[in-house]
Amino acid sequence: MRELWIGTNNPKKRVELERLLCPLGISLRTPADLVPPYEPVEDQPTFAGNARQKASLLARLAHGLALADDSGLCVDALGGRPRVRSARYGRSARYGGEGLTDRQRLERLLAELAHVPGPDRTARFTCSLCVCEPDGQVRAAIEDHCEGTLLRAPAGTGGFGYDPIFVPAEFAGDPTKSFACLDAATKDRLSHRGKALRRLLARLPELLRS
């Protein structure tokens, strides 16, 4: 069984990846197994740049084929923010500095959107995937999106990050259909990460054989 290193220690993100990748008979490894530790710096201006940087570093440290992603939320009413800073949104003295929880970041975003009417609360999730060889060379790079709108209050207990306030376009206007409300199969079918991974799946057998 060929190993694939995945650039995340987020258990919920790993579950999403496993649902789509494990049917191929791939053994997934995470940075938790590495010494020295995997500590990527996400300082690129694009999702694709961060995914490439993370995958290249992990492949070199693990001496194996590595997959990394960079994902985030882009909100039209905020000029596209938080973009690549989605997981670090609100890191300032005003909003509590380092270490905000998912819920705190979500609440900050809702506060910024309080004045925005429903029709203008459009947004999209973006996911960039990158696969690198042990020498750090890129073997595959894929990006996909999921369009939707943002609720005024969280709904649902599943998912992570901004999932409780994001309703995909297929369920526009239904507050009971946030990403955090959907079953795993439906979310995988519609989500940015699910779309990108399905495109990657078509290429993985070739990458794993080489």
Give an overview of the whole structure.
The chain has 210 residues and is an alpha/beta fold. It has one domain (3-209): Maf protein (Alpha-Beta Complex). Helix content is 29%, strand content 21%. The protein contains 6 helices and 6 strands. The protein has helices spanning 11-21, 47-62, 102-112, 184-190, 192-201, 204-209, and strands at residues 3-6, 27-29, 66-75, 122-132, 138-150, 166-168. A 6-stranded mixed sheet has the order 2-1-3-4-5-6. Strand 4 (122-132) and strand 5 (138-150) form a beta hairpin. The longest helix has 16 residues, at 47-62. The mean pLDDT is 89.
Keywords:
single chain; 210 residues; alpha/beta; Maf protein; six-stranded mixed β-sheet; 6 helices; 6 strands; 21% strand
Number of strands: 6
Largest sheet: 6 strands, mixed
Averaged pLDDT: 89
Shape descriptor:
globular
What is the multimeric organization of the chains shown? single chain
**What is the ordering of alpha helices and beta strands?**
EHEHEHEEEHHH
Show the helix and strand layout.
Blueprint: E1 3-6, H1 11-21, E2 27-29, H2 47-62, E3 66-75, H3 102-112, E4 122-132, E5 138-150, E6 166-168, H4 184-190, H5 192-201, H6 204-209
Parallel strand pairs: 1-2, 1-3
Antiparallel strand pairs: 3-4, 4-5, 5-6
Brief summary:
The protein is 29% helix and 21% strand. It is α/β, with parallel strands linked by helices. Strands 2-1-3-4-5-6 form a six-stranded mixed beta sheet.
